[in-house]
Amino acid sequence: MILKSPDSKQAQLEELNSLLTQANLSANQRELINKEIYMLKQGMQGEQNSEYEINFYLKDAKRWAVIHDLRIEHNGRVAQIDHLLINRLLDVFVIETKNFSADLQINELGEFTAWYNKKPIGIPSPLAQNEKHIEVLKALSKTLPLPKRLGLTLMPSFTSVVMVSNKQRITRPKKFDTQNIIKAEKILEWVTKTNADNASIGQVFGSLAKIVSPETVMEIAGLFASQHCPLKPDYKAKFGIKEPAEVPVVQKPEVQAIVPQVVTVAITAEETTKLTSSKLAAKLGLKNTQELIDKLLEKGFVEIVDGKTTMTEQGKIAGGEAKFSPRFGAYFIWPEGLIS
C-alpha cells in the first residue's frame, strides 16, 4: 500500500513564477529562473512515470509498503531516495530512478558510459550513488524503535535497485553483475521472483524468521517516512535576488517637473550578427544542427555533461552565449563568422 506519495512541487513553481514578476531582475537572473522552472517540470514528469509503474502493481498490495520521494538527513549525511519498497520479510528495496536519453553501456569494472551521437561520455554510477543512500538508511535504522523478537531487534535488509525507462537500451557486461539494473516494467517480477531466486538458503531462513504482519510492515514504513525532511530551496539566495531597499521620503518645498531624457542604447554590430545554432548550420550549408554541434565539440566550444550539451569557457571566449526560452528551452547563439 502507498504510505507516502511524492511531495508536491506546485509551491516551488508558484514561487519561481512569482519571482519572475519582480522588476529588479537582471536578464541573467530571469533566464536562470526560467531554466529552473523548465528543469523542475521535467523532473516532475520523470517522477510521475516511475511512480505509475510501482503503483500499478503495489498500490493495493497489503503485504507491501511503498514510500515515494523520501529525503533523509542523518548524522550530517543526506539521502534523496526516489522510492522505498518494504515487504513482510523486512526486505527493503531502495530504488534509484534514472531517465537516460542515450544508450547506456556498462563495462566489466562497473563503469557507466552514455553514448550520445556515437560519442562516449562517462557518467557517475547510479549503483554507487544508491549504495550511499543505503548506508544512511542502515545508520538511521539503528536509531529507530524497530520491533523485537526474543529480545532481538528485527533489522531490515536493504537491496539496491536502479530503475530505468522501458525504452532504455542497455549494453551489459558478461561478468559484472547488473541484475539490479532493471526496466521499470520489470519491477514486480524482480522484487517477487528474481531477487528471491538468487537468495541463499541461509538468507531465506533468516528472512522467514523475521516475517511480520502487514500492520507491522506499515508501522516500520511509518518510522522511515516520519524521518522525511523535505527540501525547501531558497530561490532568492540561489539566484542572488535581494529585497528592494526602502527609499526614505524627503519633503521638498516645491514640486519641480522632471523633463524625461531620451536614452539611446547602442547595439553593436557583433550583437546583431549572432545566430542560433540552427541558423548558423544553415548558413554554413551543413546538413543539420547536429553536424554543427559535432564541429563545436571538436573545437572545444561545447561539451556533453550528463547527456546535455553545455557551452565551455572556450566557447564563451569565442563569443558564444547560452540563452533560454520558456517555450523552447535552452539554446545557444554564435558569432556569424565562428566557423569558416
Overall mean pLDDT: 82
Helix content: 25-40%
- Oligomeric category: single chain
Question: Which strand order spans the largest sheet, edge to edge or round the barrel?
Answer: 1-2-3-4-10-12
Report on the structure:
The protein has two domains: 2-225, no CATH class; 272-335, no CATH class. The protein contains eleven helices and 17 strands. The protein has helices at residues 10-19, 27-58, 126-141, 187-197, 201-209, 214-225, 235-238, 269-272, 277-283, 289-299, 313-317, and strands at residues 2-4, 64-74, 77-87, 91-98, 103-106, 112-116, 119-123, 148-149, 152-153, 157-164, 170-171, 181-183, 274-276, 302-305, 308-311, 321-325, 329-335. The chain has a six-stranded mixed sheet. A four-stranded mixed sheet has the order 7-6-5-11, with no helix packed on it. The protein is globular, with a radius of gyration of 27 Å. Mean pLDDT is 82; it is low at 196-202 and 262-271.
Task: Write the topology of this structure.
Layout (H helix, E strand, L loop, with lengths): L1 E3 L5 H10 L7 H32 L5 E11 L2 E11 L3 E8 L4 E4 L5 E5 L2 E5 L2 H16 L6 E2 L2 E2 L3 E8 L5 E2 L9 E3 L3 H11 L3 H9 L4 H12 L9 H4 L30 H4 L1 E3 H7 L5 H11 L2 E4 L2 E4 L1 H5 L3 E5 L3 E7 L5
Parallel strand pairs: 1-2, 4-10, 5-11, 10-12
Antiparallel strand pairs: 2-3, 3-4, 5-6, 6-7, 8-9, 13-17, 14-15, 16-17
Helix pairs in contact: 1-2, 9-10
Features:
11 helices, alpha/beta, 36% helix, 4-stranded mixed β-sheet, 17 strands
Question: In summary, what is this structure?
Answer:
The protein has about 350 residues and is α/β, with parallel strands linked by helices. The protein is about 35% helix and about 25% strand.
